[in-house]
Amino acid sequence: MKPILEGINIKKYFQVSGGFLSKSSSYVRAVDGVNISIYPSEVLALVGESGSGKSTLGRVLIGISKPTEGKVLFNGKDIYFLKGDEKIKVRHSLQIIFQNPDSSLNPRMQVLDILGEAVKEKNPELSRIEVIEHIIKLLEAVGLNPDHIYKYPHELSGGEKQRIAIARALAMEPKVIVADEPVSALDVSIRAQILNLLMDIQRKLKLSMLFIAHDLGIVWNISDKVAVMYLGKIVEYADTEELFENPLHPYTMILLSSAPILSSNFKKFNLKPRGEPPSPINPPSGCRFHTRCPFAKDKCKGVDAKLIKVSNNHYTACPFYANL
Amino acid sequence: MDERTEVIIEKLKKAKREQLKLTWLRFKTNKAALFSLYVLAILIIIAILAPYITPEDPYAFDLRRALEPPSLASPFGRDEMGRDILSRVILGSRYSIGVAFLSVLIGGSVGLVFGLISGYYGEWVDHIIQRITDALLSFPMLLLAIALVSVLGVGLANVAVSVGISTIPVYIRLTRGLVLQVKSEDYVIAARVIGKKSGYIIFRHILPNVISPVIVQSTYYMGLTILIASGLGFLGLGVQPPTPEWGTMIGSGRTYLFSSPHVVVFPGLFILITALCFNLVGDGFRDALDPRVRVLVKKVKI
Amino acid sequence: MKEKILEVKNLKVYYFLHQGVVKAVDDVSFSVYRGEVLGIAGESGCGKSTLAHAILRLIKPPGEIVGGQIIFNGYDLLKLSEDEIRKIRGREISMIFQDPNTYLNPVFTSGFQVGEVFEAHMSLKPKKAIDKVIDIFRKVRLPDPARRVNAYPHELSGGMKQRVLISIGIAAKPQLLILDEPTSALDVTIQAEIMDLLKEIQRDMGMSMMFITHDLGLLAEISDRIMVMYAGRVVEMGDRDEIINDPLHPYTKALLSSFKYYRKKHLPVIEGSPPSLINPPRGCRFHPRCPVKTDKCSVVEPKLSSIDNNRFVSCHLYGDYS
Fold this sequence. Notes:
heterotrimer, B: MetI-like fold, 10 helices, C: alpha/beta, Rossmann fold, 4-stranded antiparallel β-sheet, 25% strand
């Protein structure tokens, strides 16, 4: 099966110092050489902590942040080099749901307009009444009653705002949705509702999802495959069950150990990282995790941390995975 | 049309009206701003009706009655040419307030447009506009206005244009800063992800979220432009005597500051009041339009 | 045998807004024993943060403590003067907050901010206090403590900043440390490290702790006893193991279930949304969302009653109200 969305050797650097005309500058290497594939109807979880580059990668893949190097292919076509109708079609097919429900809706627009502009973009030929009826259907699809149509964002709760954001993405009839930590900013008791909604929508519409998260419970619940990121690179990639039962990278093991105790089925190891997280401007040489890795050897400073295929559904960037 | 949809359209209109009402209510809680708004309203009405409500002809002079102090017949006294100051102040409101509105209109609209372009498109467009703005900002506004007036010539219209142009750089800076903030908000990115084009995004998403601070800034500027126009008038570079612009009145009357202060005090007072009211109303708008300002709190007895 | 260092009786904290009176904490009673960690669980809006601020008398208008007692070492904190409570704040009872970015002053070095505690409570000038500060930094496992004394908050990572906050909290060796979501803003691996640190400090210093969070997983790790709050009230209280393994109140059960792992199926949902605290539901505040409610629940308010020795529940399913 071919991937529906593919990132090939993606690098995204942000300049931090040095201005318009200066000679030297330093860069934050947010994403530093990533190969990633998302398959049709699959949910791929992208896991990492702050500084891992997962959000940046999500934005590169969804077409709103042109990579410094590398390309993004949607059904084989480079999404940053399209023109005309094809460009529009691909633009509609790739949608995003943001983390913060408060900032993802224009505070001066009613729900009518927030969803209306999406509906009209996808179906420019609809009349005003048809647009409204379409919006009502979208609201029902995300579990909201039609009354919400005339509300402003500040009159909605966090969960309701997030549902609107989901409805907006659905209005474009997308093939791939990047969900960037869609429930992290919500109350604990609301998270389950939104996650269940996303799960249902994904199943029903057979969407592909790139689910960016830091909460392993959510990853276990919703994803088919997991990619673990650390400091701009993918360090492990596997089927979800395989990754949780049999992690083959020290960082993944530490992540699993760090989850609070109620998830003890996965705390077979009790690993802690050493030291402090390094800077993304000056990442460590070789394997980037070696400065914090409890298993680190001298060799790790010089090793080339490319993903190694361990089996059909399991890749790791730690060359010493067998000895962990 | 489906009945349900009709109901919804009605409710939509109602909701929009509710929003406006709420903003007005929030404005009203600022007593100083509310009072200033009423005062301004009165001043604007005076300005509009000016020619019909002056007790005397503002241009009629009578040298025998020069510098008469305030009395029942002439509540503000008479100036150095014997003209009734009250009538001149009333007519002057037209010029001063008129110049204020005109210059803010000019400066605001041009500044807004360039600020939007500069902020949204960035890169070399931004660089060029910003460097020009930097250069203009290095001049104090009054100096800039003086320079422009010396090029365009004196007179009411030129004053409005000069003062207006001198405010453009600050509007550009203000707008650009706001655009940069709004540009990176998720809902703007969301509009791009949906597929909307730049023009649409600027008008539909960026402009409405940027306009409130610009309006607030404009009310402050109305006060400022009155001062600058008066300054020009005072220097003899603005509206020329005998036209009764408040600043010009002070300018021609300045020799009498200590001997017959009423000649200078009344126009000066009106400049002060008008500028102050604009500022207070500006504060009121700022608080009323900012959705994050907290709701007023009242102690309730259980 | 166990000594109570804090006893809260019928505490009520209300916020007077023009939309109405928000009953943020509405008749809450509990105790904290010497040397124990009491975990306080609940979601946002349940009143746990307000409770913490009330104990330190940090409630400002429009909020007001309208009733109850807070007895600390024999004194009712609510009856003390502002001067007296200031001596207690930061010294006998201290607090660690959630977001180090808002609670650390960006223009002072970390050493100075910790030093201020010594200055305020032990009359030591910040310069003299440097050795003590370095000691504390070592205790909270801040790497390279001597150098960090001169570091400004923006030069420190999230985990380090939280350690500085913890230093400020424990500098005066308080008897009671209140922690309000101390790890919510941190990455999960840093969170684990900070939790280990807190456990270690608590053991070494024999402090009592009130650990406030929505994350029951964390409470399961660190608490001796757990108290669950909902809509301004206590709904359940008991030993950690009992609450985690055998929850009684339907809300506790629902909250616990959201911290378990489920593979590819619907997560359990608590229907509805958190109630308004201005007009809370009649009867039991949880009844509109309760999967096992009875008719009585919408009419009669349950009281927190003792099930056995250390266990309290506020639910009509347990206990008898005639």
